[in-house]
Amino acid sequence: MQEQFNEVFTKYHEVITWGVYGTAIALMLIGLYAILIKKNLVKIIIGLTIMDAGIHLLFVGIGYIQNGTAPIFSPGYENAADRMVDPVPQALVLTAIIIGFAITAVALSLVIRLYKHHHTAKIDQIKSLKW
Amino acid sequence: MKKAFVIILLAVLGFFLTKTFMDIPFGENRIGEVSSNETAAGYYLNNTPAKTKVANVVTAIVVNYRGLDTLGEVTVLFLASTGLASILYRRKREEEDAERLSLPSSRIMRTGVRVLFPAIVLLGIYVFIHGHLTPGGGFQGGTIVATGFLLMLISYKGFNTDHNRMVWIESLAGLSFVGIGIWGLISGNTFLENIPETGILNSLISGGLIPIIYIVVGFKVAVELTGILDILLNIKPKK
Amino acid sequence: MVITPIHYIFVPLVAAFAIPLLSKINKELPRIIPGFVLFYNIIISIVLMQQVNEFGYVSEVIAGWKAPWGINLIITPFSGFLVSLISVLGFLIWMYGYRFKQVIDRGELRTYNILQMMMITGAIGIIITGDIFNLFVFLEIVAITAVSLTAFYRERDGAEAGFKYLLIGGFASSLILLAILILYTQVGTLNMAEIADRMHTVPSGIKATILILFIVGFGIEAELFPLNGWVPDAYSQAPGPTSTAFAGIVAKAGVYGLIRIIFTLFDIDGAYDFLITAGLITMIVAEAAALKQTNLKRMLAYSSIGQMGLALVAFGIGTKEAVFAAMFLLFNHAVIKSLLFMTGSILMYNSKDKTINSIKGIYKKLPIISLLFALGAFAIVGLPPFSGFWSKLYILTAAADKNMIFLIVTILAVSIVEIVYYFRVIGKLYFAEDENVIEIHKPTPQAFVAMAVLGVTIIVVGFNPDLVTGYFHNAADILLDKASYIKYVLNVESVIQ
User: Fold this and answer.
1) So what CATH class is A2-71+79-125?
2) Which of A26, C29, C236, C347 is the most exposed place for a label (fewest CB within 10 A)?
3) pTM score above 0.90
4) What ipTM was estimated for this complex?
């Protein structure tokens, strides 16, 4: 199973690289687009979340090492340290996801308050939000 | 007009980013020779089973090597929850008018959730207790538990979480985490050091403080996320 | 238990987690506890500064794994001075805000005090950490608390200002995360000293990309143009003590992050020129905008941005004299701007519609406050014999040393603009007819003491700048000395010549 995957990986290395990096970068750009263009406040927040998702994906993807396995020393893998993927990006992404969640939560609460006050969630009708 | 400008900007950014990442090959071994301790990752992979007796290296990094980051992150969640309470603050008399904002749920949902809820909570607790042996841990497990609560909150309008108890669990869990750190300081070592005897690799009781910290974190995250969801769902209905 | 840098972090954390429980016992506790915590911060500062004076650095290992495998906290003379300043300011701001608004519900009191205390803690964390991802985490702590505090009052437009801040701040943190990501792939470590050590192995194209991402990310917190759109709204909508904390504490942490990254991690020549250019543009745009403001707090906010721009220019000049002058400026700005915001908030509290016009002639009813405001205004535009004069003078001499005539002319021109808009306020305060008909709220005695301490500092340092200058000279030396930072943290000789 592992050998078949490695074969595919080496043959299609270019495609896989483009695929992983391209998806992550595309997500970031889509998120950025939503932040800059969309008028509904909730959609802007979703855009920020998507951009964060793109960055997290990129981070985890960076940590991959060819032929690597998960960095867990389960029974049977005790001496597999040479073949493990990079554990550090995974740990960092864990923290980053939670922080992104916290930002989203606070942003949504602000939107709720704005909506109660102005009875609209469109950014151009809430006057002080000018760039 | 503005759309065109933004699209051009995004195209430029996209090109720029792609060019940068083409220089960073995918799947390249950046750790170097693991036993040479050249990079941080190499050091962690090399020494984790021996020094901390924990099987899951990611858990060891999150809780032990970079424990201060995790403490900061738990703080961020706590502050987000406090900030939410501050922004959506309701005075006492408004509290009684608050009603859960949800559509009536179907019979399938209500029956299904009643079966699923205990299973989900159990799964979550399992995940964060075994964080040091299998993929998972405090944050993941806590989130799973909170998902279970979310399902109950959506399906049953009358289901209410006990705010008082949640505040207690939240504060006590937070204090325990910092307390564990202080214990390290008091006993003459550094903050958050892993002091107790580490057990045997791959058994449930291993890794000294690491599973304990993760269990504490699991409870805290579960309670906090549920609290946040609860505040966001209980909005006063517009008159 | 020995006092170490981690005390700055865990003591407020214990208080923050305990306050929700303790507030059930006694309603007044959330107000009192931060006072003890912030006072303890001052004690920590005194102890640690003594150690810094003796040994040069104080470094602490966390969780038993020494750098670069674990996270470490490090205090250099520069960061130590900033943190001590923040501790003292934090305590003074607490005193000032003790009973700032009389009518506050129990729940709001609890959240307000937790958030304010943790914002200060986050700023301190940014400054003392030696690990770049830890820096990111503390930055997020500051961002979340600052946004929640901006939106605190329900009667104002705080929610809009807060949303704008959060959006820009969230975007900034994503950029910083991206920068850390790319940096990690190149150097394989997250410890700042080790990154500095390995920086020369990174190809320059990638290095430039990382630097740009970092500058944009930190520039938002350090209020660079054009990333400071959030500042006037946030500063004017937040409660009085919070805006004081923004100007005196949070902005300093942002500037410190930027400087630490540029000076220690990167150290390329282009970065210094960039600092000068960016600082100049920030200063000019901000001061020009300040001229047009009718809302006092917005005016003070723009003035704050301008001063931060000036500090960045001074850092950008790069010589020892210039860096020393920049540190002196940061010290003065923290003290003076805090005083201005404190007095300004009280003046605004007593005005009908928060504009400068509505505080005409109010000096008769609030004589001491008006005097202190005037003192702050004189000091910040750089009039002798107050402290602000010396820092401006030293920056100008440092610029002259490098023959930067354009810089000198610009700074002087901007100073004239400052004089215009500050004196306009003083004029309205003292020399206009009093049309005010609303009831005057006199500040509390604690607030008076806090403001008096700041005022006295301005005067004392103004007459005796040598009290602090010797210290800044030493700190400037150490900041420019990258190799000793690396050596101290890693206990190895670095590869940098």
Assistant:
1) mainly alpha
2) A26
3) yes
4) 0.90
